[in-house]
Amino acid sequence: LWNKHKVQKFNTSEEFEEKFISHVEWTLARSLYNCDDLAAYQATSQSVRDNLVIDWNKTQQRQTVRGGKRVYYLSLEFLMGRALDNALINMRTDTSAQDVGKTDQVLTKGNTSREMIRQAMKDLGFKLEDILEQEPDAALGNGGLGRLAACFVDSLATGNFPAWGYGLRYQYGIFAQKIINGYQVETPDYWLNFSNPWEIERAEIQVPINFYGYVDRTNGEQSTLAPSDWIGGERVLAMAHDMPIPGFKTSTVNNLRLWNAKPTTEFDFSKFNSGDYKNSVEQQQRAESITAVLYPNDNFEQGKELRLKQQYFWCAASLHDIVRRFKKNGRPWSEFPDAIAIQLNDTHPTLAIVELQRILVDLEKLDWHLAWDIVIKTFAYTNHTVMQEALEKWPVGLLGHLLPRHLEIIFDINWFFLQNVEKKFPHDMELLSRVSIIEDASSDRQVRMAFLAIIGSHKVNGVAELHSDLIKTTIFQDFVKIYGANKFTNVTNGITPRRWLKQANPKLAQLISETINDPNDDYLLDMSKLTELSKYAEDAGFQKKWNDVKQFNKLRLADLIKRLNGGVDVIDREHIRNTLFDIQVKRIHEYKRQQLNIFGVIHRYLEMKEMLQSGGSIEEVANRYPRKVSIFGGKSAPGYYMAKLIIKLVNSVAEVVNNDAEIQDLLKVYFIPDYNVSKAEIITPASDLSEHISTAGTEASGTSNMKFVMNGGLIIGTVDGANVEITREIGEDNIFLFGNLSENVDELRYNHQFHNPELPKPLKRVLDTVESGAFSPQNHHEFKPLTDSIKYHGDYYLVSDDFESYIATQDLVDEVYHKNKKEWLKKSILSVANVGFFSSDRCIEEYAETIWNAEPVKPE
Ligand code: 26Y
After folding, report:
1. What is the mean pLDDT of residues 355-378?
2. Which has the least CB within 10 A, 9, 101, 116, 749?
3. Residue nearest ligand 1's atom 6 by CA
4. pTM for this one?
């Protein structure tokens, strides 16, 4: 019977239209007469979701039946962006191209459903682009780490891996950034305002989660190693919300499970009976605060109790879910690590290690050491930073209060670990205190989460070669000594070419598929096919087409900027072909050195002014400092004073430079407010040059560098993070590197402590100008903290050390871009031709092979 009434996907535009209309009428309870763009977006998404759900169900069934190893990616952040356009690119219909050829241009061309839906929408009276614009970004992340998780789930599904993501369903994503009078102002991102068609509420999946309380071992057991009862405290429910994750050119649809906190229906009778009904309801309601908001810090740890609650809530719910699924198979516990791999995205989910140990010992009554062996084999940990201020530590008191049993287990883990260290390196008390999970240096003891993550995992990886080497010689040096170097490995980050090439840059994708004769876009799965492009790197006809695509994308960005700028154009469209778009978009952070960039802009401006003042003509100026627009974007953590000041400086400089008639339109500066994933899709394809200029050794990898290169932009960058491997892949002739190397950073910093840095002349002039109030006439001292940090506070990020080589390299950029366009285009083409390594598909394959030992489960 079930088979007779089998649900079916829509395969043609006809069938889509039918679906669409029924969703307008039934799901939205509206009619075509009052169906606006928002309703059309929702009906379209519901229809597409229906298709995905069919494949989602089949995928889950297949993965269960085949019983291969499952991978779980635990991440507190999934910076997904919009889902609809991505689904249109990835989604498969059931009918092959040959069957539908006539109605369905797309299935033969590029194999996506995008064109089919575009046509259908048009027939229904809508424009696809306008419909796509209705979708709010799912902005459940801060920056690189969260976007990496989003690229990973795309590649996991595309590679047919039985893999789920686990995260939190924040009601407020990363704040929306407004720029008011040049200052960042944060406004809440209540993204679920208009119901979210991409989530499936699983009301039947509710996991009770406990906090606080105490540990009970009254049944005669004294040892913390014995099964123990954790009793009492606060209880909340974790309810699952699932998002379908479609793979590209496969019917595999994986799952992203996000937990939502809800009050339990249990009632605290003591409170109830005391007559305080209203108060006890309010207290229950507070459960929901656990998943209310994403913490907006990027690479900076604050140690807030609610954040620890979020972490445990999410780890416990996910582990419970994973264990429940495992137990259905009836396999022995010893096989748990053969069935399951859990990847920890940074230390945020480290409590999952402790929770699994607790489940095995306290609930499943396994011997402590047998349990611990299972735990270690199950987990692997990815590190994303070497910076001290980003390493998580929780006060012992706080952790013990919230999770009393977990603290006991942590102490036991530490005890056994230190015993092993002592055996291997007898009497080395210094070593023991350096590697102890419990930091005992200060008055309040802290749990070092990174150490716990290393000790509880079988592999630890960094995210680019340089960074993976650095963790072995700096923060985790002792652990290499203890475990050997093999426990530590590298998996260089990647990005999904579906979103970051096909979706963000349809014009370039089309030119590529035509040129390499790949009408079905197979190159998006095998990026080595792009090397074909090298043949045309110097072909004048091809260069022209390549350049035309870039101009199209620059105009598209100019339109966006005009819209964001209240309808006033910033960029001179007439000269756009000869305007270098120089872009730095990423979180604002001193280590990423947006201050170096804006100081460089000020330097350029001062040079231009000086030429004019000493009698030079505007033509001469234009010859030396040709047309350029300098674009910034990115959010600062709300409490990060210096980062906010950098934003203000950029806006203040823009105000002065953009209104200086003397330099005409040769230089423009613009700060794009509220940088996010959907804006990145417009910004990235438009760059001629992008900046990745962190102090060497501080940026673990960077991923926007890969995005820009994939879109034919050249890079100016330091020898840091993945810039190193980008250089190796695309060739050193095709990248503009500058600055001190990471091996010199310590010494330079050390020296600055004893004498203030000697400022190179051009930098001194820049800082003097800033201090003169040239950009802050109301308040001359406004930017003093920025200039002082360089002049008097040790210049920790080495702006003074890298400034001259930065501006010299910028001169070189101008030279090539304006005097040798052919050379520029050649570099751009060769970059794309050799960017294949940075597909997240490659990255996921490396994880699967070297860390998870997991195999794809392919549809028939
Ligand atoms: C401790 C907590 C407040 C915290 C929250 C967010 C700590 C770190 C983060 C986010 C870190 C992050 O985004 N790191 C970036 O990860 C990218 C993906 O691996 C790297 O490309 C990038 O270099 C790194 O800064």
Report:
1. 98
2. 101
3. 298
4. 0.97
